[in-house]
Amino acid sequence: MMLITYILYLHASAWLTFWVGHSLHKNGRYFLVEAFADERIADAINKLLLVGFYLVNFAYVLFVLKEKQDIVGMAGVIEVLSTKVGLIAFTLAVMHFFNLFLFATFRQYRMGALKHKLLNTIFEKLSSKGII
User: Fold this and answer.
1) DSSP letters for 70-126
2) 88-116: per-residue pLDDT in tens?
């Protein structure tokens, strides 16, 4: 049962990772173009985000691959798979919302609408050094 669980887990995780990555890459471009006001930079960042997304997610998938307890029957397979794939989905969601927060904050800074003093200071220092 362990081998079947591993194969199903890797397949489901890979499918979920590629589907979410493709969706974010395709639909996130518009958001990045709006945030950065430069299509070339937005496209480059979008590609880098996709590569980073895949690397982080596959590392996490492999990190949690090993199951410490014996899996008994199909019910056990389903329980382990739902837990592991659920953790992957949750991790993807956290990464996605963190990125949305960062880019929305950057967009507000770029438009002069960012009201948070600490974030303004951080963006001003990054901007003065030519990083953004």
Assistant:
1) ---HHHHHHHHHHHHHHHHHHHHHHHHHHHHHHHHHHHHHHTT----HHHHHHHHHH
2) 889 888 988 888 888 888 777 777 777 77
